[in-house]
Amino acid sequence: MLSFKSGFTALAVGGALLLGQVLGQAPAQAQTKSAIDIATIGEPGPLDPVTVTSDLVSIITQHVFETLYAFDGKWEAAPLLASALPQISDGGKFYTIPLREGVKFHDGSTMTADDVVTSLNRWLKASPRGKLAAPAVDAVAAKDAKTVTIKLKQPFAPLLALLAMNNGAAAIMPKALAETTDTLKTYVGTGPYKIVEQKPDQYIRMARFDGYQSPPGAASGYAGARKAEIEELRFVPVPNATTRVDGMLAGQYQFADSLPTELAPKLKGAAGVEPIMVKPFGWALVIFNQKTGPMANPLVRQAAQAALTPEDMLLAAFGDPAFFEVEGSIYPKGTPFYDEASVKGYNQHDAKKAAALLKQAGYKGEPIKILTSPQYDFLYKMSLVAQQNLQEAGFTVDLQVLDWATLLSKRSDPGAWDAFFTYHTFVPEPTLITIMNPAYPGWWDTPEKKAALDAFNTDTDPAKRVSDWKAIQGLFYSQVPAVKIGEFYNLAARSKKLTGYTPVPWPFFWNVKVGG
Amino acid sequence: MTAYLSRRFAGMAVVMLMVAAIVFVIARVVPGDPAAVMLGSNATPADVAALRAQLGLDRPLPVQFVLYLRDILSFDLGNSIFLNRPVIDALLDRAELTSWLTGMSVMIAVLIGVPVGVLAAVRRGTLLDQAVTAVSMLAASLPSFWVGLTLIEYFAVRLGWFPVAGYGDPGAALGARLHHLVLPAVALGLPNSALIIRFTRTSMLDVLHEDYVRTAKAKGLGPGAVIVKHAFRNALIPVLTVIGLTIATLIGGAIVTETVFGLPGVGNLIVSAVLRRDYPVIQGALLIISGLYVLINLAVDLLYAVVDPRVRY
């Protein structure tokens, strides 16, 4: 390690070093190489797709690491590194997964069942997603060089979806790398791009992987054929959203993610730029503390649900209705789990009903500590409307405006809060929704929910799972562990020179061309 | 001189130790958890606790403090939690950009500030002097983020003369990278030039009323020689102080400008580290900046003796 002293000296003699740099500077990259700059919301940190569940890490690492399955355009699992969907036997307790042959890792080695088994074991142990599956898994084994088996203790229907997720992903890597217990420091996957250079806060540079073996079939969502048309991808952290927009307008970036909705008119009027609306993208929610404090009483939570006006909150947050939908169903229209019937009590704005419920609950005006953060401007604006709604109904509100890091840390302590604002990125499998996990802050852990979730997780029939989900959503509205505020969409932008782009929550750049 | 320097270095060591202790305490008193930030909002408290243990953040604070002091005394700034690499490497990566940015900003501030300040003093009470005073007051009160965004809008987006953000493509030549720094340097340099204008003007006015200037004029020296040889040299000491302070302020104060222009400099690193609660980076960066601040102060004091031979240490 470089020492403080040597670093200090280096800083002091910076001028001389810099002069050296001027003289020894490498020429610019060959201009003939096709390359794009993608402006992201910030520095992702360690690029470990297994242990880190931030969306940014998923967006970047999905180009490098692949999973056995991936979601297609209809959000159904389709083979990626597997050659077919699993054969499920023994009443849903035994999965046989055939692997594609000849798949190469970036280090030149060929993927074997051993690599897959070790990678899946690392995922079960280290990934927050894997840990959801781990209690149901008895053993992962290699049946032969090109077949992997997963033996379960009891049927666990979300397994396939979990294996297909690119967030907290069951990423397949060489056995030696998968034996690492710490956060990854080297990145060797099977993806269409390989990492060439990572300069924190400056860029992550990826080059096309010439040995890439694409899955067969037409491209659909994250599944089907993948072709790295562009030779080099550069993910550039640009934390200031206005700068991302200006960079798009000036042609410095070919893609920019998460742009402020109020700047949409500027993007729409610009030549050479195409605004992108990503639907579905996410949903905002306020989560209640069910362990201690006034919100532990279900009647108080029901009162809050009656008092809130999601419609006003969404309008305050996003301004233009083009960017949101007042939608109570946890899953949006057009997805298999969409259900309107079990959404009872959404968007009421009934202060009288709320006041009556508070009286029935014996609420004595104890302050309700609500955590919010201006770092997510839309959440902050929503919380201001919520404060007004709740006060009108008779709640005493203690709105605590914190930075996001403080909010994340404070919400772990049940004694420190009664409600907090957050959002959830769209996930195709309901088990992946954070509040389904009884250990997630809010601690929704009632016997009814547990029974309904167990049924949902063990039923393997898709139709039965849909009706099971309706029951869980019904409980969400009667037990009120949280209030869904509504759907919102992500504004991104691409250069018109970039073709073949598919709008998805975690943008990817294979099958994308840059020209003219 | 040797005794003076020994005294100053001993004082610096004490200051640095105090800074180290204060920074440690402030970083830990602020709520927030690097493990929670790193894992994202989907993580459960159990996941966060496991990572905290892995990072050694579950140890008692006094133990962490002693380990931190031990590392500093062996000139080790530790490892960044979020970036997963030594703090000194992270700082050195960004030192080049911040050095250039600071250098260019100071150059802009001095090249505008000193001549305009001298001119305003020499033409005291004229329309030019009043205009300089008014414009410099305005420039000093403009927030650098606003100046930055305005420069981006006109010179980068509309005219396309300069890049909007970043520090050039990988492997780009230094010239291309410095091209990226022109607008940020102007955004940072302009408000500081206003400060230097005001100091230079005041200092020159004081000197212009001195007897030796009157004597020089009486001897028949031309106005140029009087201003440059007699007045300016003596007016330089307070100006030097403000330039030194400007450099020190710019090193730390480039934070907002680096964020607006998406520049991977030391300022940006500090902002990100605070948001991520990356304690070793916060501590290391502030220690280095404090050290530079103290060193610049010492350099300015020593320069007094060079500019004014009457000053002895």
UniProtKB/TrEMBL annotation, chain A:
- What UniProt keywords are attached to this protein's entry? Signal
One Pfam family in the UniProt entry: SBP_bac_5
Signal peptide feature range: 1-30
A GO molecular function annotation here is:
peptide transmembrane transporter activity
As for subcellular location, the record says: Periplasm
InterPro entries the UniProt entry points to? Peptide/Ni-bd (IPR030678), SBP_5 (IPR039424), SBP_5_dom (IPR000914)
The main location is periplasm
Q: Where is the Solute-binding protein family domain?
A: 78-427
* GO aspect biological process, one term: peptide transport
* Coiled coil segments of this chain: none
Q: Which GO terms describe its cellular component?
A: ATP-binding cassette (ABC) transporter complex; outer membrane-bounded periplasmic space
Q: Which family does it belong to?
A: Belongs to the bacterial solute-binding protein 5 family.
Protein name, entry field? Peptide ABC transporter substrate-binding protein
* Species: Aliidongia dinghuensis
Organism lineage reads as: Bacteria, Pseudomonadati, Pseudomonadota, Alphaproteobacteria, Rhodospirillales
UniProtKB/TrEMBL annotation, chain B:
The entry's cellular-component GO terms read:
plasma membrane
Principal subcellular localisation of the protein = membrane
What is one process in the GO biological process aspect for this record?
A: transmembrane transport
Q: Which Pfam families match?
A: BPD_transp_1 (PF00528), BPD_transp_1_N (PF19300)
Keyword Membrane part of the UniProt annotation: yes
Q: Which domain of life is it from?
A: Bacteria
The record's annotation in InterPro entries points to: BPD_transp_1_N (IPR045621), MetI-like (IPR000515), MetI-like_sf (IPR035906)
Q: Which keywords appear in this protein's UniProt record, sorted alphabetically?
A: Cell membrane, Membrane, Transmembrane, Transmembrane helix, Transport
Q: Where in the cell is it found?
A: Cell membrane
Membrane topology of this protein? Multi-pass membrane protein
Keyword Zinc-finger applies: no
Question: Per the UniProt record, which residue ranges are transmembrane?
Answer: 9-30, 100-122, 134-157, 177-197, 235-261, 281-307
Similarity remark: Belongs to the binding-protein-dependent transport system permease family.
Q: What is this protein called?
A: Peptide ABC transporter permease
The protein's organism comes out as: Aliidongia dinghuensis
Q: What is the lineage of its organism?
A: Bacteria, Pseudomonadati, Pseudomonadota, Alphaproteobacteria, Rhodospirillales
